[in-house]
Design goal:
The structure is a single chain. This protein has 209 residues and is mainly alpha-helical. It has eight helices and three strands, in the order ααβββαααααα. The protein has helices at residues 11-22, 33-39, 70-85, 97-115, 118-121, 133-141, 145-179, 186-201; strands at 43-47, 52-56, 59-65. A hairpin with a 2-residue loop joins strand 2 and strand 3 (59-65). Helix 3 (70-85) crosses helix 4 (97-115). The relative contact order is 0.10.
């Protein structure tokens, strides 16, 4: 059983979900490049040229290399969409290598989330065996099995981290409850009272924090 309540989406994932819902993208069937581009007011073209995203004023355009496979074209679209949504404007060929690499990494993260949004994945009927999940995601979201497996591994790590964080919180709460005088046994309360009485008899102040 997948404990989705322990999955904490990143701010980027939340932003993608909000963007999609604002244009009526609710299911894997809605994740169509031409549909998304149309609803976001982006001109989409397929040409015999390297994929790129272009923005000037209110005009936005994505060009996809038509020599790529269908799966590669699909990934390229969401990658270039990430550049537009994240405001990576300007001619990147003129940027320093490190900065350009950062922008590409950000666009790759965007593409992975945008291709397989968590709010859609959590609604899917999961197969009996976990090894089949990447194949389900690949089929539903029309991505490669390799990319689907990366996303699935990412989801499992996030859930495991959420479970670990909750266990830490519960452990700290348990320690606090045991330390609270209200939860002491009668014998412990009596010993504490006697210790206070002795200090008062000796004229010593008692500070209880």
């Amino acid at each position: 059983m997948l404990h989705w309540n322990f999955y904490h989406p990143t701010e980027l994932e939340k932003r993608i979900e909000a963007l999609y819902r604002s244009i009526g993208i609710e299911s894997p069937e809605d994740l169509q490049e031409d549909l998304i581009a149309s609803r976001l007011g982006i001109k989409l073209r397929y040409e015999d040229a390297p994929s790129l995203a272009f923005e000037k004023g209110r005009f936005r355009c994505i060009v996809i290399d038509n020599s790529l496979t269908a799966a590669e074209q699909r990934k390229q679209f969401f990658h270039e969409l990430g550049h537009l949504i994240r405001g990576h404007s300007g001619d990147q060929s003129k940027f320093p290598d490190l900065f350009r690499g950062l922008l590409e990494e950000q666009a790759e993260h965007f593409a992975k989330y945008a291709l397989m949004p968590y709010y859609m994945i959590e609604k899917l009927p999961m197969p009996e065996y976990e090894r089949d999940v990447p194949y389900l995601l690949a089929s539903e979201f029309r991505v490669t099995v390799e990319l689907a497996r990366e996303r699935w591994d990412q989801i499992k790590r996030r859930i495991a981290r959420g479970i670990w964080e909750q266990a830490c919180i519960e452990r700290e709460r348990s320690r606090y409850r045991k330390a609270s005088p209200a939860n002491w046994c009668d014998q412990a309360k009596e010993m504490f009272r006697l210790a206070i009485d002795r200090k008062l008899q000796k004229g010593q102040g008692v500070i209880i924090r």
